[in-house]
Amino acid sequence: MPRISTSNTDQVVTIGDTVQIGCFAHANPVPSYKWLKDVNSKSEGSLLLNVHSLRPVLVLKNIQMHEEGVYTCVANNTLGESRKKLKIKVLGNNLDFVDSFEIQKRIEEERQKQKRIK
């Protein structure tokens, strides 16, 4: 069964950023990967990327508020399936009027909040 290993953690970004999320699973046979968004007990979520590759990376360019959510990497092969989740929080809209110091402060506050939740 695939065993996902990744250094990705929950991320806090601002509108317009580019986000790259990698996923790698140790497995033989080599697994297939897919990325899902907002999986819950009632829904499999939205399929974002389905790939057979050694190092699949999901790239979200010019990220927008509607792309905020929980992203799930799924690695599967004939022996089973493994999943890894990560949350992306997008700060935006009212930040156009805030200086860059304030933006960095808000990002750091959100990161600290996420650490306390874990």
Put the structure in a nutshell:
The chain is an alpha+beta fold and 118 residues long. The chain is 15% helix and 43% strand. The radius of gyration is 16 Å and the shape is elongated.
**Count of helix runs:** 1
Please provide the ordered H/E string of secondary-structure elements: EEEEEEEEEH
The largest pleated sheet is described as: 5 strands, mixed
Share of residues in helices: 10-25%
- Quick one: overall form? elongated
Task: Provide mean pLDDT, rounded.
Answer: 82
pLDDT < 50 stretches? none
Strand content: 35-45%
Distance N to C terminus: 26 Å
Radius of gyration: 16 Å
What is the topology, as strand order, of the major beta sheet?
Answer: 2-9-8-5-6
How many beta-strand segments? Answer: 9
List the helices and strands and how they pair.
Elements: E1 3-5, E2 11-14, E3 19-22, E4 24-26, E5 32-37, E6 46-51, E7 57-60, E8 69-77, E9 80-91, H1 100-117
Parallel strand pairs: 2-9
Antiparallel strand pairs: 1-4, 3-7, 5-6, 5-8, 8-9
What does this structure look like?
The protein is an alpha+beta fold and 118 residues long. 15% of the residues lie in helices and 43% in strands. The strands form three sheets. It has a five-stranded mixed beta sheet. The protein is elongated, with a radius of gyration of 16 Å. The model has no long low-confidence stretch (mean pLDDT 82).
